[in-house]
Amino acid sequence: MLTIEQMNNHTRKTLVGHLGIEFTVSEDGYVEATMPVDERTIQSYGYLHGGATIALAETVAGVGTFSIALPEKSCVGMQISASHISSARIGETVVAKGSIVHRGKSTHVWDVNIYAMDDDRLISTIRVTNAIIKNRNPDVFSS
């Protein structure tokens, strides 16, 4: 199981770091992460961008799958289905709460709900399917 520190350190110089995503909880089959609604994550009208929301959900599901896969396994996103229910405005923070709903040998399916942290308003509900693949870099989190 990956630690929160390992996840946050590893993703700092990636899209995840650029979007300000920080992991806060990691348990077997459950992951939480936060993301600020700021100039990096909004669309031109000052609302949270749907693409940033989907990136957050795919990140949570991907790290969740990676953290519970065998050391020789990794994952790639295979399918995403998103419903945007509400929105968040610049200055807010959102939290993604991801739970695994299917843990197969070749696929994992996650439900990720994204909420505004201030009032627990549901922003988006997203289902992510990950394909389990051979890990070509098994030492990626060893440092």
TrEMBL record:
Family from the record: Belongs to the thioesterase PaaI family.
Residue span(s) of domain Thioesterase: 45-120
For this UniProt record, give its keywords in alphabetical order, as a comma-separated list. Answer: Hydrolase
Query: What Pfam families would the database entry show?
Result: 4HBT
State the InterPro entries in the record: HotDog_dom_sf (IPR029069), PAAI_dom (IPR003736), Thioestr_dom (IPR006683)
Record has Hydrolase as a keyword: yes
Record-linked CDD domains: PaaI_thioesterase
Q: What is the name of this protein?
A: Thioesterase domain-containing protein
Judging by the UniProt lineage, the source's domain of life is: Bacteria
